[in-house]
Each structure stands twice: as C-alpha cells, then as structure tokens.
Amino acid sequence: MIRLIGAELLKIRTTRTFWGLTAGAVGLVLLIVVLSLLLDDSLGTETDVRDLLSVAGFSGLLALVLGVVVGAGEYRHGTIAWTLLVTPQRLRAVSAQTVACALAGAVIGVTAFVLAAAVAVPWVSAKDVPLPPLSELLELIAGVVAYAGLAAALGAGLGALLRNQVAAIVIILVGLFVVDPTLAALDDSVAGFTLSGLGAAISGADDDSSTLLEPVVAGLVWALYALLFVALAAIRTANRDI
After folding, report:
1. Helix H segments across the chain?
2. Of the candidates 180, 188, 217, the residue with the CA atom closest to the CA atom of residue 201
3. Which residues, 6+ apart, have CB-to-CB distance to 227 below 8 Å?
C-alpha cells in the first residue's frame, strides 16, 4: 500500500495541475491577507489576528478541486487501465489515490498558512497588535492542514465516482455556494453538517459557533463523507469494465 501511495504522489507532483493549484491557493490566501492588512484598520486584538490567519482555510477549496481533477483525470486520460493492470484490487487503487490526494492537500494547506503567517505576523507585530498564544496558532494550523487534506480526499473520491472532471467540479461548486446556504437558511441544525459548515468548523474560520460542530467531530463527519465517495467509486469501478 505504501508503494501505491508513493506512486500516486509521484504522479501528482509531476503534473502542472498540482503546482498550479498550489500557487493559486497561496496567491488567493496572500491576496486576502494583504488586502485585509491594508484596508482594515480595526485589527487590534488576538482574536482579530487569529481570524486573519484562518483565511488560510480557503486553500481547502483548491485542494478540493485538486482531488476532483486527480480522481477523474485517470478516466479522462485513460491511465486508469494501466493503474489497474499494476493494482488489480480496485479498492486498493482508489484508496491509495485518495490518501495521496489527502497528503497533497495537506501540503497545500500548510504552505498557504506558513506564507500567510510570514506576511501577517511581522506586519501586525510592527503595529504592536498582540499575537494569539502559540497553542492557538498550532490548533489553527492543524485545522487548516486537516481541512485541506480532507477536502482533497473527498474530491478524489467524488472525481473517481463521477469520472468527469467538469461535472464533479460543477457539482462541488453548486453544493458549496448554492445548496449549502439554502439548507442553512431553511434549518440551522443542518448547517453544521454541510460541506461549508464542516469546513468552517475544521479550519477554525470565523462563523456563528452555535451552528458549527466541534472541530474534531466535524473532521470525523467530513472523513465519513469522503469514505462514502471512495467506497462508491470502488464499487462502481469493480462493477464496470475499464
């Protein structure tokens, strides 16, 4: 299994998609951080700094796209046949790809957070704004990394299930920006179980905490969603010729 994961990681890091999405995630996070520092004069407390650094959680959105592209890309380019020749056990093949995407997503998350902190911390320190305790910063980076990794894993499962990159990305975007807000508006109790609500809880984003689950619980729920997609993808792959 370790060799399979290593092979999948090699495929991911040797494609322009991974580096492009990583650059996009980092660029988006840095843009938001810099604009916030330039335009927001109200930054003055530890909570403000924490909320600013939590913007790194946006990297999870592009990690999600990465997972979809990798999961569905095997079928788009026809490389899935070669993968299954080497690894006939299709559940192992899909699982290895999912774990590799999770690790790649975690790399995107930690890169976005570290660079955002490298810009924000000296900036706010120069203005004598107090920084959050180290324990809170460690919890925040752990949340951002976990969210990015889990997002990529879910994307890989969904991509492998649908086998169509465009359709999977459209479904994800509609779910995040249309379905999730609609469900949250209709019933507050459901908001915490939507992808948006779970992502906010895991990454430590500023939101109405009364509607969010605890970070660990949210991570477990998200992981169950990802496992469901992976299982369905493996079943579909096993029941159809490639």
Report:
1. 2-13, 16-39, 46-53, 59-77, 80-86, 90-126, 134-162, 165-174, 180-186, 188-191, 195-203, 215-239
2. 217
3. 157
Average pLDDT over residues 69-96: 64
Q: Where are the domains of the chain?
A: 2-239
* Token pair recorded at residue 50: 């924490």
pLDDT at residue 192 tops 90: no
Name the nearest CA neighbour of 128 among 22, 50, 18, 46. 46
Q: How far apart are CA 154 and CA 172, in angstroms?
A: 10
Q: Write phi, then psi, for 128 (nearest 5 degrees).
A: 60, 30
Residue type present at position 38? L
Other residues' Cβ atoms within 10 Å of the Cβ of residue 34? 14
Token output for 219: 């991570």
- Which residue did the predictor score with more confidence, 180 or 88? 180
Residue 209 pLDDT? 55
Q: How far apart are CA 208 and CA 70, in angstroms?
A: 33
Cβ burial 71-101 (10 Å sphere, 16+ → b, else e):
bbbbbeeeebeebeeebeebeebbbbbbbbb
Model pLDDT for residues 106-128, shown as the tens digit of each residue: 999 999 999 999 998 888 888 88
